[in-house]
Amino acid sequence: MNIRVFRTPSDAGIYAASMLERVITSSERPVIGLATGETVIPVYDALVNFVRCGLNVSHVTTINLDEYVGLAPDHPQSYHQFMDEHLFSRIGIRMQSTHLPNGVAPDLAAECERYNEVIRNHPIDMQVLGIGVNGHIGFNEPSHALITGTHVVNLTPETIAMNARFFSRKEDVPRQAITMGIQSILQAKQIMLLAFGEHKADIIYRALKDGIRTDVPASILQLHKDVTVILDRQSAARLGL
Ligand code: F6R
Q: Which residues does the Swiss-Prot or TrEMBL record annotate as the active site (predicted)?
């Protein structure tokens, strides 16, 4: 694993965006796997600046990790809206080239199968990942077993509590999500895992240095041959670098 530590999330975001730029400019049909959440905002801000300075993204396909069950794409807290606000609308990407699970599909099992097919048809060149304080990647939550393909997951009380900061009423926080599975994540040619802040220091240590365990799903990334971990000083604090 290549571990890079930056002074600020915004410096780290520029580094991550330049890694994405390399993938985007070195392939005719690049496929980027995307995440949502606070961590990836500096990455998307930097990428938007690159596009404003001439980076062409018209040939890029994106595949997001997850979406809440029960939130329609136009719901303000949906991941569809997050992506639109922080990236898609700002870089003018063709919406047909962007993919997210549909959290209001009438048949969720069929939706998971459809999403697996999307991933099969578009092998991911670079997967962007954040990490939950409980070690989740996508919404692959700590469990006795990890699931390979796209699935519906019951979010843990810890994740629901963390997500509550984005909702005005606690009872509106979704209890379930559709997430890409662990195998689909591991099949990406390259992976970048980002984490910022003191509150991520413990889980970054456990994910990178403490063996591979299903109750720390991100630790499985130790098996992938091309992972770059992008941290700030606070999240790297326990690594003893
Ligand atoms: C969201 C996702 C999650 C987040 C993680 C960190 O698409 O896949 O795994 O990356 O929960 O969230 P933040 O960045 O808000 O701390």
A: 66, 134, 136, 141
Q: Give the phi and the psi of residue 67 in degrees, each rounded to 5.
A: -155, 150
Atom 8 in ligand 1: residue holding the nearest Cα: 138
Q: Rounded distance, CA 33 to CA 61, Å?
A: 9
The closest residue, in CA terms, to atom 9 on ligand 1 is 138
User: Strand order in 176-179's β-sheet?
Assistant: 66-68, 176-179, 151-154
**C-beta 66 within 6 A of ligand 1:** yes
Q: Any idea where the domains of the chain sit in the sequence?
A: 2-187+209-216
Say which CATH topology domain 2-187+209-216 has: Rossmann fold (3.40.50)
Distance (Å) from CA 123 to ligand 1 centroid: 22
Q: Which residues contact 180 (CB under 8 A, 6 or more apart)?
A: 33, 63, 65, 66, 115, 119, 138, 150
Candidate from 99, 131, 221 with most ligand 1 atoms within 8 A of CB, to mutate: 131
Q: How far apart are CA 180 and CA 186, in angstroms?
A: 11
pTM of the model: 0.97
Cα–Cα distance for residue pair 145/187, rounded to 1 Å = 18
Q: What is the tens place of the pLDDT at every residue in 91-136?
A: 989 999 999 999 999 999 999 999 999 999 999 999 999 999 999 9
